[in-house]
Amino acid sequence: SKKPQGQDGKAPHYTQKPSIKQQQNLLLMTCVLEAKPAPQIRWFKGTTEVTPGGRISISLKPESGDVYTAVLQIQTPAAEDGGIYKCVATNEFGESSANITLNFQADLKQAKAGGVAPTFKEKPKIIQDPSGKNINIECHCTASPKPTITWYKGASVLAASSRVVPTVTENGNECVLKLEILNFTKEDGGQYKVTAKNDAGEGNANITINLEG
Fold this sequence. Notes:
- The chain is mainly beta.
- The chain has strands at 10-14, 19-23, 26-36, 40-45, 48-50, 56-62, 67-75, 83-91, 94-102, 116-120, 125-128, 135-144, 148-153, 156-157, 164-171, 174-181, 190-198, 201-209.
- Strands 1, 2, 3, 6 and 7 form a five-stranded antiparallel sheet that branches. Strands 10, 11, 12, 15 and 16 form a five-stranded antiparallel sheet that branches.
- A hairpin with a 2-residue loop joins strand 2 (19-23) and strand 3.
- The chain is elongated and about 70 Å long.
- The relative contact order is 0.16.
- The model is unreliable at 106-113 (pLDDT under 50).
């Protein structure tokens, strides 16, 4: 197609892989794209156009610059919502489409697609507070959907208590996992392990606390 004269525009293109998230009873399919001017978005399931109404809503949100987020939201997703979806973006400079496959697992609860298995990118940090009484273990993990976290000491699962306090802070796909041990004693020394699991897989990190001397 010919470009309009004297205009500085961009045909739509997708800047990252589409993602699928489930929040409570909502399923969100999200595509991030660049286009100038703003694109028209149409969604299809197979060859049928998906129109808003009932359990389905569709949105296009401008982000910074010429970046847009196109979202198809399905309420209370069910088995029959599974299939191949396509997001088609068009403006006067061209057209682009992205495919998303929604496949439900047997239990239908968790839409499994575009997940990231938990990975620990950096070595865990051990921080002793200035009073010398408490120890904090801190690990950074990337995962999507949100992982389930289990801490171990040696081979046994470490139970949380008023003295052993695990916390998880989430920021998008990044999680900061902390384990605080208050008023630690020599008995708290040894091998620790943290395991993060989600639908896409599992990752773990090992920590040695050496309290000798």
